[in-house]
Amino acid sequence: MRQLLIAFFMIFGFSVHAFANDEALAITPQQTFDLVQTQPDQMLFVDVRDPIEIMFIGFTDVAQANIPFLLADRNRFLDDKQRFAMDKNPQFATQIEAALKAKSLNKDALIITMCRSGSSRGKPSADYLLSQGFTNVKYIDHGFQGSSAKEGEKAGMRIVNGWQNDGLPWSMKINPGKIYRSGQ
């Protein structure tokens, strides 16, 4: 019976793990790229980084939208962390739902989120969407820029894995039609 249920959920695109634990599953950058190439109209691939971060780190036009999970508050600088405070985008779930609706999809469609590293916004944004009633959410393991090298000449540099380091398409050019703009 268990195998029958698992097969049912897999056929209809539901995440079995998500139903069991309310926790999103990781997916590789290559798997995401392949899904966008083969079924772009059946899913939503979202870059959840702040658009200013995208401007300095790069973007993949394979992402179908940029909807930030956290937005930098440029009025609150955290001296101890040497960065601006990041606040949750209060419209995140609503904006995701609108992006799905624009593609004639609903909350059961596959959604894949991607941040810089996969852990600070990719997984939390996917878990948040699951808590908001979205049923098939995954996040890109190691995100756009990947993990830092632990040793060697390039220790500390993000060169280990992730979208950029897997050789997938990206650019420093931002697609104006996909980038998040506050107030829109």
Short note summarizing the structure:
Residues 1-20 form the signal peptide. The chain is built from seven helices and seven strands.
Structure explained in plain terms:
The strands form two sheets. This protein has a five-stranded parallel sheet with strand order 1-7-6-2-3. It has a single domain, classed as Oxidized Rhodanese, domain 1 (3-Layer(aba) Sandwich). It is globular and about 45 Å long. Helix 4 links the parallel strand 2 and strand 3. The N terminus is likely disordered. The chain contains seven helices and seven strands; from the N terminus they run H-H-E-H-E-H-E-E-E-H-E-H-E-H. It is of the alpha/beta class. This is Sulfurtransferase. Pfam families: Rhodanese (PF00581). GO terms for molecular function: transferase activity.
What is the distance, rounded to the nearest whole angstrom, between the alpha carbons of the first and last residues?
Answer: 47 Å
Q: Which residues sit in consecutive blocks of at least 5 with pLDDT less than 50?
A: 1-20
CATH superfamily: Rhodanese-like domain
Q: State the order of secondary-structure elements, H for helix, E for strand.
A: HHEHEHEEEHEHEH
Question: CATH topology, anyone?
Answer: Oxidized Rhodanese, domain 1
Query: Architecture, according to CATH?
Result: 3-Layer(aba) Sandwich
The helical percent reads: 25-40%
Radius of gyration: 17 Å
Largest beta sheet: what is the strand line-up? Answer: 1-7-6-2-3
> How many structural domains are formed by the residues?
1
Q: How would you sum up the major sheet?
A: 5 strands, parallel
Sheet/helix structural class: alpha/beta
Secondary structure tally: strands: 7
Tally of helical runs: 7
Strand content: 15-25%
* Global shape: globular
